[in-house]
Each structure stands twice: as C-alpha cells, then as structure tokens.
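Section 3.1: Structural characterization of target chains.
Under the original work plan, the team committed to producing a structural model for every single-chain target entering the pipeline before any wet-lab resources were allocated. The record below documents one such target. The sequence was received from the expression subgroup and is listed exactly as submitted; it comprises 156 residues.
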Amino acid sequence: MDPKKNLTGTFSYLQPFSALVIGDFILDYYTVGNIRRISPEAQVPVLDVEKKECRPGGAGNVAVNLAALGASVQVIGRVGKDWAGRVVAQKLEEVSIVTAGLIVDDQFLTPIKNRLIAGSQQVIRGDEERVESANQRIKDQVLLLLLLSIKNLSVI
C-alpha cells in the first residue's frame, strides 16, 4: 500500500509553514488515579492520586498541535502573573513555540481546568477562572503584536 494513501501518510505532503495562534490560554491540569473506596464521612468516592500532569489548554492546545505538524508557531494572548501562566509559557517553549506574544497581566488569573480522572474516566472537572474582558491596554498590545507579526505568517 502506498504510504501516502492513508491518513498518516497524507501528513507527509505538508510543507513547513508559520502559524500564529491568538486566543485564550488555559492550563489544563490532570489529576489521575483510581477509586477504590468511599469516604466514610461524606459518602463520596475517594480518588487515590497516582499522577498529576499539566498541559497548555485552549489556544495553547491548538499551538501545540500545529507545532506537532511541523509548523513554526508563535502565540498572542493573555496569561496571569501567576504559577499557571508561567507553566503555560514553559510548556509552550518546551515544544519550540515562540511565546513573546504572551502578555502577562497582573490583574488576571490564568484559567485552570482540573480534570480528575479515575482509571480512564473523567469523574469531575474543577475550574478556577474569572471571566472578564481584557482592558484597553491589553487589546492595544494584542493589535500591535498582530501588526508586527502578520507579514511573516502563512496562517492565523
């Protein structure tokens, strides 16, 4: 069978390209374990935590997927001046994504989506976020970063 006649082989036709991802950057946090007992004081399942993992979520997930396809990726968006924002930037940089366009806003909390997974089943998700619009200063920064980047891009 010709390798280019299946889905995986089709990706070999992709040419290098540059991409800009603009959006909401979130920290996806996974707490994984097994449920083996019920709590005696509250009659709820107890997750015995075996591992924890952080990944870029939201627009960060899109950026990581584009990088995996071989794109040269840069991002524009807002993160908080907090632990979650630093982790999002670090995880993006680990896969060679340009994070110079991540605007650190000390009035903003980077959203965290914590998925509690028992075995292979998500049992609950806990969200830490405040939904709020960016102020005019942040909006102006986004526009400036876009104008400075746009001429060197294949796709936004």
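The two ends are 35 Å apart (CA to CA).
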